[in-house]
Amino acid sequence: MTENEQQVAGLLLAAGGGRRLGGRPKALLEHQGRPLVEHAVGVLRAAGCTRVHVVLGAAAAAVRERAELGDCMLVENPEWAEGMGSSLRAGLDSLTGTAARAALVSLVDQPGIGAEAVRRVLAAYEGEASLVSAAYEGVRGHPVLLGAAHWAGITATATGDRGARAYLKEHEDAITFVECADVAEPYDIDTAADLTHLE
Known about the structure:
Layout: H1 3-7, E1 8-14, E2 30-31, E3 34-35, H2 36-47, E4 52-56, H3 60-66, E5 73-76, H4 84-95, E6 102-107, H5 115-123, E7 131-136, E8 139-147, H6 151-157, H7 165-170, E9 176-179
Parallel strand pairs: 1-4, 1-6, 4-5, 7-9
Antiparallel strand pairs: 2-3, 6-8, 7-8
Helix pairs in contact: 2-5, 4-6
């Protein structure tokens, strides 16, 4: 196990209620015969994340029941309806006090981003001051790696659906961008039309 794998925890945000999908929780959408949340955890594990925290929200009980999430740490976000910011805060809070020096944040509704892109972002980790982002033809996307030195600042600014966006914009000079367009597609599963991406 490399030092990166021990010090960086995977943080999967999987709390969304799928408002534009008629209220179908994204974690439970089917992909390759299994719930999407299971697929997303598998990607983080395949990339080398040995500790994975999964933030649940919408239909959390059903997700626990139907998805096999093994030894993941499941974090329930009672404020999930407020948007991704609250899930990111809950996830970072759950890592405080663990051995993790950074969180590699991925989103449950981006199945086009596989282990290779996650591996590249993980490989750019240097310590708790690290800020790393996947880029797609130069445009910042997910996953992002947030060193522990930044967690308090991110938590203070993560509101609504913005997640870490405001913080990253402010600290753009400090971000290491890792180009991933050759190995991943960063589409989201947001609307009924996007369901064609699922297999």
